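Archive maintenance. Older records in this collection stored only the sequence; we are now back-filling the structure field for every entry so that each record is complete. The fields below show one back-filled record exactly as it appears after the update. Entries are processed alphabetically, and Protein-glutamine gamma-glutamyltransferase 2 is next in the queue.

ARCHIVE ENTRY
Title: Protein-glutamine gamma-glutamyltransferase 2
Organism field: Nothobranchius furzeri
Length field: 813
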Amino acid sequence: MTIWLEEFTQRLCGNIMVYLFPVLFGYCSWELACGGSNMHSFKDLNAFGSDRAGALKSTCSETPVSVLQRACKTSLNCFCIIRDNSAKTMGLVSTSNSVFKGVDLHSRTNNTEHHTSEISVDQLIVRRGQPFILTLKLAQPFNPDLDQLTMTAETGNYPSETRGTMSRFGVPNKVPASASSKAVWKAELQKGSSPETGSLTLTIKPPADAPIGEYKLSAKHKEEEQVLANLSVLFNPWCSDDWVFQPDDEQRQEYVMNEHGVIYRGVDNYISQMHWDFAQFEEDMVKICVKILDMNLKHKRDPAEDVSARCNPIYVSRVVTSMINNANFGGILQGSWGSDFRGGVPPSHWSGSYAILKQWYSSFYSSVKYGQCWVFAGVMCSVMRLLGIPCRVVTNYQSAHDTNRNLTVDTYFADYGVRAKESKDSVWNFHVWVEGWMRRPDLAKNNKYDGWQVLDPTPQEKSDGMFCCGPAPVTAILNGDTHLKYDVSFVFAEVNADCVCWLVKKDGTMDKISTDNITVGQNISTKSISSNKRMNITDSYKQREGTEQERSVFRYALDRLKSEATGEGDTGGSGEKVLSGTSEMNTTDPVRTAETNKPSQLIIQFKEDSRPVNGGDVNLKLILSSESTVTRLLSVNISIQAMRYTGQPAGNIQTEVTEQKLLPGQDLSIPILVPFLTYHKYMIVSQSLNVSVIITDLQNKENIYLAETRIKLMDPPISITVLGEAVVGRELTAEVMFMNPVKETLRNCTLTLSGSGLFTGEIITNLPDLQPSNRIRVQFPMFPYRSGERSLMVDFDCSSFRDIKASCTVYVK
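Back-filled structure field:
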């Protein structure tokens, strides 16, 4: 590639701009960023086009300095920043009369010390509250007793000392600072320096409350000022003064440094796990995540204030929740909870965050289609970990969506067993959010609410006028402090709401069948530290069900919500109520009647001989037992529905009505069969089956009983293995095997492979049709580009199944 000297020298001699351009020849690779004395920003020379005259060409035998001398011969005060990509070093060199002769940013050493070398060893990426070093070479000796080196660190387009987005400091520390200055940086001259030769090794420390983001670091000496570096500053969970400080190293390794994880789905009695590739340390993730912050609405309205507020992880995490979904302007993911995914891919397709974030960034911030709660949460966890906020993905089973803030979810059944109508409220099979670790001094000075905070990027309700949720302290949720910021009341309902079941009669009236204060908020789960085992954290969110303490906290929370509704309390950032996109609101409800009184001696159970697999028939038994001393004649109405994971029905599969005699003191077993050919078309887009039974005592028809269970079908097995030893830059083969488990030909078969450090993007391959009972084996080449533990992910799609997944761990040398 050539250096276009005509435009370069014209701008260079004007001493007003800087240009960044690569010099690539043969196997040599290095970059120059050149400019004059008053430069303040980089610009890409490629913007000038490749048709410029007067090209200055170089050969592999030339050194960067020789090219610099030729490029700058028309200027009396020229310098260039040089990055040698092969040696992974960076430095500043200059010619003529400039007082600045070079700078070594020690990027590899600094990034290793700051736990950012996984992101890059070329670009300087540091964490606030922790010092880094650079070596500055001056053209003349430096006397610390007489000379002054003044440095400036600034971020954003409107840097200000009073906002903490600019800091002036120096060596020696004689730079006057305003009393209103915030986030003041510091520099010290290391003892090993040689100031008498002009070599200054400096220790520079961003404060622990510095706004995170991209910074420009410049230096001024003897009336000449030059930019030394562009660097990124992140939160620091290793620093005790940072609000995100996590004292436990195992937790830091898991919740900041681990690029791979597990997200739990399914239903509470059929918990399934999927591996997720967070990929937070891909090299362009810093610029992607900074752009996410820059695209938020608060930045558009007041960029100076927004950048200043990035010192606060409470603010930053709330901004991120609003940006992961596209319900707010510029958001990353568009949600879809139906069955139409045209223009994108089903949410179940995704296996990691990087492909989503890269697509959003590369498409100039067009929303990626489509996501659901676990995808929103997985992407948010990646962004949070990159920014330096400890983060983990959490799944709540039987998760309530309470739209009217009364801590009650109503479900309606027709007298033939199926759900009669969609409710304003709903109970999701599962719902996924994230927790971020941070202090909450805005809520209490005694650290009571510090620690894990719920953050939910799935767009469900508006909070302060935007679709976002949290941070809500887990401790506040446990204690029922629903008045606290942010959105504690909404999350409290997700794990604590009572469920009321109503039977809708033909005349429009309803009987209250049951009230359930136990079901909601089951098996709240996250990945364990240093293993893929599931960790149950339900006790962190709620008191033990069935205890007086649990009911006491529930009543306390409900009283708080009633006070807010009458204007006597704080909304806690709950904001306005809006309808979720997953259900339709009916403006009128049937007339409700009192709860039906019925004897308690009828016991209903569902039993399975084995875990059902998608592709096979579903077999289970309905077991009825009674303590009555007389024979009971019962009408048994069994209904099977396909269910979306949001708790809404997706279709009626089959209904069966029988009359049964229940003998005293004996069990009655009723077999239930759901053939594959009956359910399979629904399960392509649905996540579970709902089996419900309504039993009427024919001798006393006022006695009506309801029971239901949800079944999550296991996916048919698929395997992925790696053949041979994995070494960076060396070809490696992955092998995928899958057998058709059904008695029909599988058509439109595709395989998708992904994995950060193994593939730079998704690899999608079309496969031939697969006949019944036939097995397919496919091999893929890959070239690992990052060492360490990597996750290789595979996703299989066809006409009868969607998103059958597998993964394996690859250790790359």
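Update note: The mean pLDDT is 84. The domain at 251-565 is CATH 3.90.260.10 (Coagulation Factor XIII; Chain A, domain 2).
Entry marked complete.
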